[in-house]
């Protein structure tokens, strides 16, 4: 019974943390054998569908009953997912996947390695010096590109050996393609090699997706056709333009020039390092795994990555000679070279690996939040402590914000977070009492003084961290009150400026910039936004009540208590105006009811 519950609990935790991204998922049985490989536009929705509702087919029910673990690899697009799924199915031949009997492969565009190269399609990638582009999950897309190339550039389609000697001996004659304008006749020396090679460079640009100039040219062609009233030809060019604009020419999942390579990337927080591993053989990803290493002595990312590389290479019995990483690593492995790619397809693979490490980390953090909320909040507080250089965990944080409208109805708000979560019962509003006009600095000084003077008098616990919404001016004003109360050194205080999310410290003119992705900054922003929301709500209520009372104040003989009774009953001045004399008398008596009715109906 316990075993069944453990499996169910494990699967449910995975389902809660799956990303809503394109990717490939793998179902494993209790022995770690892959049962099924599938692709998904949205991993969370697709994988969850296996475990919700009833399945029409018996095989699906059997598959679900055998699943004990789920892993996934995030990719950029659905096409990438399709290609990766194809690769993994061929490698592992999962029991529940349909096998491709003819071992069909996806097509490539090939630029041959010869004088006057040809541009052709092929399903075989050979080491023959030619250039290969693809693979193309959509054959229609590939032929669209080839057709576009043919239209733009008159390239030869024959397989003659066009050596200088053969051309000089006039071994070949131009064919029909020359006569209909599809070829410039290099076989008879009617086209120079350098001119032809310019076409090939343009073709490579089109296939690689560097198509800005090509799009400009096609737009010109389309306009010329339209001007000549050749509308069918113009429409044909427009369709090619639309296809080309939507086309993604290369896949980050598979590239034929990358062979026998491993990618290792690291993402870390205060507790752990997450190391993602990807292996590429013959231009295709065949393996993906993420390892979590718990920090013990505040190890650096470089140290953790080196440990992870040794562990994963040993685990998967790998001996690849090239390793790509996202940071430099001081590690010497005999016969192996390390690279930190800066651009191109290799950089794309590193970014793909980093995304998988990121999603694995998010998955783990969500699990911890569900299973062990205290550990989750402690980790966030440790991050804040580290980023803000605090001396203790900020279990109790308070944030202040001022609000006024053209200098009137000045108010302030104080919001409280405990263990990195809002404690709404401890939120407080302040009506500014000693400041005349719109003076944010003086208002901040007043509310901070009032707040902590009261906490001291009532012997209430002080926060470990105070956050002031504003820059150096607001922080300096709040600090004056802290000094006046003798609290300097007992609590930490910082200011946050909205424009660039700068964090200011007392006495330090240089602000701190926290990583935009950091959980510390997210919590601080949450505090700031809550204080702003809470203050604005109170300010609006105060202005609204002020507007109501100012209208009722005009009625002679109607005091504050009567006004409150009317507002409590009718909610707004509009309803008071619409009320009958009898309804008003029932609330505030005959004489006062008569006064109010007469005022609004005179």
What tags apply to this protein structure?
602 residues; GIY-YIG endonuclease; 5 domains; 8-stranded mixed beta sheet; 19 strands; 46% helix; elongated
Helices and strands in order, then pairings?
Elements: H1 2-17, E1 23-28, E2 34-40, H2 43-49, H3 58-66, E3 69-74, H4 78-92, E4 108-111, E5 119-122, E6 131-133, H5 139-152, H6 164-168, H7 176-179, H8 193-208, H9 212-227, H10 231-246, E7 261-268, E8 272-281, E9 284-294, H11 301-315, E10 322-325, E11 337-339, H12 344-371, H13 373-387, E12 396-405, E13 408-418, E14 421-422, E15 428-431, H14 440-457, E16 465-469, H15 472-484, E17 492-497, E18 502-505, E19 508-513, H16 519-552, H17 560-570, H18 573-578, H19 581-588, H20 590-601
Parallel strand pairs: 7-10, 10-11, 12-16, 16-17
Antiparallel strand pairs: 1-2, 1-3, 4-5, 4-6, 7-8, 8-9, 12-13, 13-14, 13-15, 17-18, 18-19
Quaternary: single chain
Shape estimate: elongated
Tally of individual helices: 20
What's the N-to-C terminus distance? 80 Å
Structural class: alpha+beta
* CATH structural class of the largest domain: Alpha Beta
User: Could you please say which CATH topology of the largest domain applies here?
Assistant: Nucleotidyltransferase, domain 5
Low-confidence stretches: none
- Structural domains: how many: 5
């Amino acid at each position: 019974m316990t075993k069944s519950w453990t499996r169910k609990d494990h699967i449910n935790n995975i389902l809660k943390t799956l990303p809503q991204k394109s990717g490939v998922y793998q179902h494993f049985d209790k022995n770690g054998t892959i049962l099924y490989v599938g692709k998904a536009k949205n991993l969370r929705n697709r994988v969850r569908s296996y475990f919700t509702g009833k399945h029409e087919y018996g095989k699906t029910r059997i598959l679900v009953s055998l699943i004990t673990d789920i892993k996934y690899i995030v990719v950029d697009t659905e096409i990438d997912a399709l290609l990766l799924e194809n690769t993994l199915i061929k490698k592992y031949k999962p029991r529940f996947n349909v096998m491709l009997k003819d071992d069909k492969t996806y097509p490539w565009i090939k630029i041959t390695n010869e004088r006057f190269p040809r541009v052709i399609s092929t399903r075989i990638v050979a080491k023959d010096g030619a250039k290969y582009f693809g693979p193309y999950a959509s054959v229609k897309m590939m032929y669209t590109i080839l057709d576009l190339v043919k239209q733009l550039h008159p390239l030869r389609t024959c397989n003659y050996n066009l050596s200088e000697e053969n051309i000089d001996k006039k071994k070949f004659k131009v064919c029909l393609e020359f006569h209909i304008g599809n070829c410039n006749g290099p076989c008879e020396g009617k086209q120079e090699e350098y001119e032809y090679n310019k076409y090939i460079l343009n073709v490579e640009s089109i296939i690689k997706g560097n198509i800005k100039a090509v799009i400009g040219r096609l737009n010109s062609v389309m306009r010329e056709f339209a001007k000549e009233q050749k509308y069918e030809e113009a429409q044909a060019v427009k369709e090619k333009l639309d296809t080309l604009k939507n086309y993604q020419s290369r896949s980050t999942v598979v590239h034929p020039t990358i062979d026998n390579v491993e990618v290792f990337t690291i993402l870390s927080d205060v507790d752990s390092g997450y190391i993602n591993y990807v292996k590429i053989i013959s231009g295709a990803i065949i393996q993906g795994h993420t390892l979590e290493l718990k920090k013990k002595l505040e190890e650096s990312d470089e140290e953790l990555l080196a440990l992870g590389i040794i562990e994963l290479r040993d685990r998967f019995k790998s001996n690849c000679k090239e390793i790509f990483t996202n940071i430099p690593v001081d590690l010497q492995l005999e016969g192996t070279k390390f690279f930190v790619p800066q651009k191109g397809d290799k950089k794309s693979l590193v970014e793909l690996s980093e995304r998988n490490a990121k999603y694995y980390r998010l998955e783990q953090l969500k699990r911890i939040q569900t299973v062990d909320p205290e550990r989750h909040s402690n980790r966030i507080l440790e991050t804040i402590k580290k980023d803000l250089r605090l001396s203790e965990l900020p279990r109790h944080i308070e944030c202040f914000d001022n609000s006024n409208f053209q200098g009137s109805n000045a108010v302030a708000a104080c919001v409280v977070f405990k263990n990195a979560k809002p404690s709404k019962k401890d939120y407080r509003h302040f009506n500014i009492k000693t400041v005349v006009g719109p003076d944010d600095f003086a208002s901040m000084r007043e509310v901070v003084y009032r707040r902590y003077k009261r906490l001291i008098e009532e012997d209430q616990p002080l926060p470990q961290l105070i956050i002031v919404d504003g820059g150096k001016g607001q922080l300096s004003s709040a600090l004056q009150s802290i000094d006046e109360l003798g609290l300097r050194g007992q609590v930490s205080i910082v200011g946050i400026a909205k424009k660039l999310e700068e964090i200011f410290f007392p006495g330090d003119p240089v602000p701190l910039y926290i990583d935009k992705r950091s959980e510390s900054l997210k919590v601080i922003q949450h505090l700031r936004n809550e204080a702003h929301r809470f203050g604005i709500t109170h300010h609006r209520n105060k202005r609204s009540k002020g507007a109501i009372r100012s209208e009722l104040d005009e009625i002679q003989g109607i005091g504050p208590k009567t006004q409150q009774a009317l507002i409590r009953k009718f909610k707004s001045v509009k309803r008071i105006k619409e009320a009958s004399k009898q309804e008003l008398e029932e609330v505030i008596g005959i004489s006062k009811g008569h006064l109010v009715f007469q005022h609004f109906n005179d």
